[in-house]
């Protein structure tokens, strides 16, 4: 008999800066206690960066936009998808030393084992990042 997979955890938050903290907290609380010391900080930072980017760059500004998060374990990783209604494709930037922004995806790229950007089937974009939950040696 095949192993039954975990059901992904799903959240929706308003496209508002206060949602960054709420999203980070929700993701951290959903991790099994045993994984929090190994994965909690990195996953929290990835969550913060992706939700912040979604709010800044992926909303239409109509006041009712939502940011969606899905978290699930698979293949030795915790996968986080952050989706927004925008149609843009986030890309790695290389900001100058004096720049005050533009480093979010650089952080995601350095922490995640893999990440990608995918269009959503109906409307919007998802950024998906996977962080290994195998103990680091």
Strand tally = 5
Instruction: Compute the separation of the termini in Å.
Output: 33 Å
Order of helices and strands: EHHEEHEE
CATH superfamily: Histidine kinase-like ATPase, C-terminal domain
> Order of strands across the widest beta sheet?
1-2-3-5-4
| Tally of distinct domains | 1
| Average pLDDT figure | 87
CATH fold title: Heat Shock Protein 90
- Uncertain segments of ≥5 residues (pLDDT<50)? none
CATH class: Alpha Beta
SSE-based structural type: alpha+beta
Strand content: 25-35%
Give the helix proportion (percent range): 25-40%
Shape: globular
Radius of gyration: 15 Å
Largest sheet: 5 strands, antiparallel
What is the number of helical segments per DSSP (H or I, 4+ residues)?
3
The CATH architecture: 2-Layer Sandwich
Architecture overview:
This is ATP-binding protein. GO terms for molecular function: ATP binding; protein serine/threonine kinase activity. Residues 13-127 form the Histidine kinase/HSP90-like ATPase domain. InterPro entries: Anti-sigma-factor_SerPK (IPR050267), HATPase_C_sf (IPR036890), HATPase_dom (IPR003594). This protein is of the alpha+beta class and 137 residues long. The protein has three helices and five strands, in the order βααββαββ. It has helices spanning 18-30, 36-57, 104-111, and strands spanning 9-14, 66-74, 77-84, 114-119, 125-132. The protein has a five-stranded antiparallel β-sheet, covered by helices on one side. Strand 4 (114-119) and strand 5 form a beta hairpin. The chain starts with 8 loop residues before the first strand and ends in a 5-residue tail after the last strand.
